Amino acid sequence: MDVKPSFAAQTYAQARTAAAPKPSEDGGISFGKLAGNFAETLVRHEQTARAAMTGGADPHALVEALASSQLAVETVATVRDRVVEAYQEILRMPI
């Protein structure tokens, strides 16, 4: 099979632009929005837990809320750890 370099380069360029993330109007999701979403998620799950304790929600909803909040906290902790690692790598760079 004979593949021309220009065809390969053109196909690669098309695939790269198709797979590239689309920036939003404000240039991407800001850290503040992510933190707000995290806080809203925890508040919503806390309300579900309170409702389950008073008999206002079923146990299945409580288990879902607990699992979802655990996943959210683990995700935030992982992102925090990665940011700290990146900062430490920057500090180790020679000037």
Automatic annotation (TrEMBL):
Similarity comment: Belongs to the FliE family.
Could you confirm whether the keyword Transport appears in this record?
no
- Pfam families reported in the protein's UniProt record: FliE
Which Gene Ontology terms describe the biological processes this protein takes part in? bacterial-type flagellum-dependent cell motility
Gene Ontology cellular-component terms listed: bacterial-type flagellum basal body
- The reply on keyword Flavoprotein is no
Compartment annotation: Bacterial flagellum basal body
Give any GO molecular function from the UniProt entry.
Answer: cytoskeletal motor activity
Q: What is this protein called?
A: Flagellar hook-basal body protein FliE
PANTHER family reported in the protein's UniProt record: FLAGELLAR HOOK-BASAL BODY COMPLEX PROTEIN FLIE, PTHR34653
What keywords sit in the KW lines? Bacterial flagellum, Cell projection, Cilium, Flagellum
Question: InterPro entries recorded for this chain?
Answer: FliE (IPR001624)
Q: Where is it predominantly found?
A: other
